[in-house]
Amino acid sequence: MVRIYCFLFLSVLYRPVVAQVSKNTDTSHIYKAVDIFLVPKEGMNNFKIHWLNYLKEAKRDGRLDKAIHADHIFEVLVTKNGSLMDRGNGAKDLVLLDFLKMQKKWSPGIQSGRPICYLLKLKVPKELFDQVKMEELLVQGDLVKQELLEQ
């Protein structure tokens, strides 16, 4: 009798389980890491140095006026393919346009696996006109800022 119970118990235990599993036909992807910030090809620190050197050159050439450009913030659109372009808020400033012509494409920002547009804010520090050292200008937190554009 004990053998029969053991046999029945083991047969239930090792019996194959059949379950109905639905086939997943959803083609969307779920990403664990959703945000990758945009990055210039040579890195952000080199980009800041290039921006400040360009501003110093423009000031030396007389294209940068303290009355107009001190603490001015240029808004640049970084497109989904990494190109930099003027945001187009009114008058075109040749100082910015000339700088943008010299720039290489950036690695675009990624959100949920897709490239996205960013707004880049480039500041002309007023200290640039006061002969402040480059090292002091580089550490300013608001020299270059990135903002995600609403999709």
What does this structure look like?
With 151 residues, the protein is of the alpha+beta class. It has helices at 2-13, 44-60, 66-69, 94-101, 134-138, and strands spanning 35-36, 73-78, 84-86, 109-111, 114-116, 118-123, 144-148. The radius of gyration is 29 Å and the shape is elongated. The relative contact order is 0.18. Strand 2 (73-78) and strand 3 form a beta hairpin. It has one domain. Keywords: Signal. This is TonB C-terminal domain-containing protein. Residues 1-19 form the signal peptide.
Main traits of this protein?
3-stranded antiparallel sheet, 19% strand, signal, elongated, 5 helices, single chain, 151 residues, TonB C-terminal domain-containing protein, 4-stranded antiparallel sheet, alpha+beta
Number of strands: 7
Main β-sheet description: 4 strands, antiparallel
Which quaternary structure do these chains form?
A: single chain
Strand content: 15-25%
Give the termini separation. 72 Å
Specify the helix fraction band: 25-40%
Shape: elongated
Identify low-pLDDT runs.
Answer: none
**Helix/strand structural class:** alpha+beta
Count the DSSP helices: 5
Strand arrangement in the largest pleated sheet? 3-2-6-7
SSE string = HEHHEEHEEEHE
